[in-house]
Amino acid sequence: MRLATIKQQDREVASILGKQGAIPIDLINRQFNQSWPTEMLDIIQSDKVPEINSWYLNGGREQLATLSDGVIPKNRIEFAPLLRRPRKVWGIGLNYRAHAADLAEQSPTSEPASFMKPDTAIIGYRDTIKIPRMSEKTTGEAELGIVFGKQCQEVSREDWRSAICGFVSIIDMTAEDILRRNPRNLTQSKSFDTFISLGPILVTPDEVPDVNNLTVKTVINGKTHAENQVSNMTFPPDFLVSYHSKIMTQLPGDILSTGTPGAAHIQDGDIIECHIEGFEPLVNPVRDLKN
Length: 291
Fold this sequence. Notes:
By secondary structure, this protein is of the alpha+beta class. The protein is 20% helix and 33% strand.
């Protein structure tokens, strides 16, 4: 199943994506006598993603195909960020060995190089990335994101899928010149407004039977800048979920961005995209505030 947050008049509402378009959850509630929350974070925090997915896989998909009134056609969907206010957004640095080599950096081998980003940095599909006035060189990087579905601690690597509710495409930005001046500037370089794009789709785990087979691409102006397979991560998704659940309690809606196959210098007028095999592309235009 694929879920999205879409713009509907002055609201941002959770929807299921079907072949005919986006079907808002509140429409599903009315038509099929359900009572699910209608905002994405509420759905995740109340642990309703598995319930909705079970309904969808056991007849719901066919029921949705009968709807027409109230369905937003694909060419009229306006996506919002998948989540506006997750409690935590984790990022992982240098997690693909090839990316570390490209930067002449040593890939961490004993533990992930993780950091956090604020929710004020979040944007969504087609929103504009704004290169800050403080930076002369900002990079963008495509990544696979993991969304926690439960409050959890001390998750084993074998049980990591029980802790998540899905996967999401991410574009993460870094003010690289600020980071290069001093590695202790990591938080500053990663935290400007518009510096993380989420979406447009939450893909449930049953649609990704082997996450290690996914290919992630950073695409700039239609040209692939970097690509790699999740299997080439130093710290794979099962390890990352387990490891971070041992640092602190992870909450439903928390996001873990697993690292990039390669960052690209972005400039005013560019279009940057995250392509993940089997996912809808995540696309964002770039504007330099210094221009």
